[in-house]
Amino acid sequence: MDRGWVPGGSRRRLLKAGIGLAALSLCSTAAAADQNWQTFKRRFVVDDRRVIDSGNNNVSHSESQGWGLLFAQSYDDKETFAKIWDWTSKSLQRGDGLFSWRWSPNTNDPVPDKNNAADGDILIAWALARAAAKWNEPRWLQPSRRIQSAVLDRLAVEFQGRLILLPGAQGFARGNRYVVNLSYYVWPAIHDFAEHAGDQGRWRRLEADGLWLLDNAAFGDYRLPPDWLLFGNQAFRVADDWKPYFGFDAIRIPLYLAWHNQASRLGRFVTAWRTPRFGGRPPAWINLDNGAVAPFPSSGGYAAVAAVTQFVADGAKGAAPVAAIGDDDDYYSASLKLLANLAGQEAPRAKRT
Fold first, then answer.
1. Among 295, 307, 300, 308, which residue's Cα sits nearest to residue 329?
2. Of 53, 119, 192, 227, catalytic
3. Which pTM does this prediction carry?
4. pLDDT digit string (tens) for 153-172?
5. Catalytic residue among 2, 53, 63, 209
6. Backbone angles phi, psi at 178, to 5 degrees
7. Measuring CA to CA, which residue among 347, 310, 299 is closest to residue 19?
8. Is 185 helix (H, G, I), strand (E, B) or coil?
9. Which of 113, 79, 82, 109 lies closest to 99 in space, CA to CA?
């Protein structure tokens, strides 16, 4: 979920300055990886239940809860996983099985906007399915399947011969076009659903058609996808309601592609970051209309995404880079680091599409 996206409102978000790719801390032991999770949990998980966005007034998102569940499962923290899921299901889950996108502390109504966010829904369903398999816990498989079915029924839309994923159930139709956020396609999760879910056919179509959208969403000198895309009549534009950036959302596109070991689709990102202008480090955002970049540096989490993208693009051979969470990392930067670490571990075993 884009913390800058408020349905019906404005988007304002400044990234906290971090460290560059050259300063990316690397570690390779299980103890160091576990320490990353312990640090994340201490700083960003309240009462082992609610994952807070420290850069956005300590709100929680369906995305943050999904990532928290994924981290707890991956680092074998069953107790924390159960607590995060209990809070998430009670505080954010809607009657249709999907989740309201944001929970705000210190307000009379912590969930004033009941709209959902597709990435949060998918992440939660994926973490539940992984936990059910890892710990042999059938109690988590049924809610995962319910969420998966709700995503297909409420968010997967037949449009001009393609099955596309809406970012949320409401607010993304523009006449004969739809707004799409390609960072909400969590590719390894969608592929897992297509392999194991009850409705494999629709998941496979959603995966294939989503990759087609991504391959054709190429803007600016670096041919990069935008944070928000407008699709209709087989034509692609940057969505009018958002800035023409490859930025805060789109940085997750190469991350999820790398996790799914889509090496052939990572070239344009690596090529852009290798230009002398960037020196291997992704800017906080790139304006796809005029080539301008953010006047502030990107976070250490961006550097971690660049490192794992390069690792997979080069064939995912040898030891994967592992980024350490530092004092300068806010919630989003720390989350990107943990996600990049998991992607590096799992990418060599992922199936290519």
1. 300
2. 119
3. 0.91
4. 999 999 999 999 999 999 99
5. 63
6. -130, 145
7. 299
8. coil
9. 113
Q: Is 63 a catalytic residue?
A: yes
The single residue listed with the structure tokens 């923290």 is 77
pLDDT at 87: 98
- Mark the ranges of the chain whose per-residue pLDDT is less than 70: 1-33, 197, 351-353
Q: Which residue blocks in the chain are alpha helix, DSSP H?
A: 30-44, 62-74, 78-91, 118-134, 141-155, 187-196, 200-216, 252-259, 267-274, 300-313, 331-346
* Cβ-count burial 179-213 (b if 16+ within 10 Å, e if not): bbbbbbbbbbbbbbbbeebebeebbbbbbebbbeb
Q: What is the DSSP letter of 295?
A: S
119 is catalytic: yes
Identity at 70, one-letter amino acid code: L
Q: Which two tokens stand for residue 207?
A: 């995966």
Residue 18: CB atoms within 10 A of its CB come to 25
Residue 314 CB neighbours (<10 A): 12
Tokens of 301: 């989490």
Q: In whole angstroms, how large is the CA radius of gyration of the chain? A: 19
Q: Give the contacts of 325 (CB within 8 A, at least 6 positions apart).
A: 36, 39, 40, 43, 334, 337, 338
